[in-house]
Amino acid sequence: MARTTDESGAPVPQRLLAAATRLFAEQGYDRTSVQEIVEAAGVTKGALYHYFGSKEDLLQEVYARVLRLQQERLDAYADADAPVEDRLRGAAADVVVTTIENLDDAAIFFRSMHHLSPEKNKQVRGERRRYHERFRALIEEGQQSGVFSAATPSDLVVDYHFGSVHHLSTWYRPDGPLTPQQVADHLADLLLRALRP
């Protein structure tokens, strides 16, 4: 039976994901071998296959874990008892902060998504679409109630914001002049200004 933790108590799946994320970020998905991942995680290939089944499963999980976190947080903002502009601003800022906090994961995914099988690619796209639809529903709620301008279609507003989010990994640097929260506040403010009636 595979051990579920190491001497430090870290669960083996977390160690595998951490090793894979670091190696995929440094070397690229296609240039990283399963052997390198298991050596970096300090486990056997059997342990990897016990938890993930394949290197491709690791790639999918690198992004899926961030998306699950973001979906959970978006749901909390969307369901909150607050004015729609506050809920949308909170959600818009949160996706920026959580993306920056997981920048390697996001960069790996956008660089390597084409390595996923059509089935896994479809699954990830479906999960991402669900997130975008929930975000769009906040915009539509505000447009229908007159709080936001309906001049721009909600789909285009979503693409506008997430275009910025998806490009964070190409320019954001932790040692740069802006903190993650400052970037998030600026992008959320831009979004709300674009929706002003």
TrEMBL record:
Record key words, sorted: DNA-binding, Repressor, Transcription, Transcription regulation
InterPro entries cross-referenced by the UniProt entry: DNA-bd_HTH_TetR-type_CS, Homeodomain-like_sf, HTH-type_TetR-like_transc_reg, HTH_TetR, KstR2_TetR_C, Tet_transcr_reg_TetR-rel_C_sf
DNA-binding region: 33-52
SUPFAM superfamilies in the cross-refs: Homeodomain-like (SSF46689), Tetracyclin repressor-like, C-terminal domain (SSF48498)
The keyword Aminoacyl-tRNA synthetase belongs to this UniProt entry's keyword annotation: no
Pfam families: TetR_C_24, TetR_N
Keyword tRNA processing included in the entry's annotation: no
UniProt domain HTH tetR-type: residue ranges: 10-70
Name this protein carries in UniProt: TetR/AcrR family transcriptional regulator
Species assigned in the record: Streptomyces narbonensis
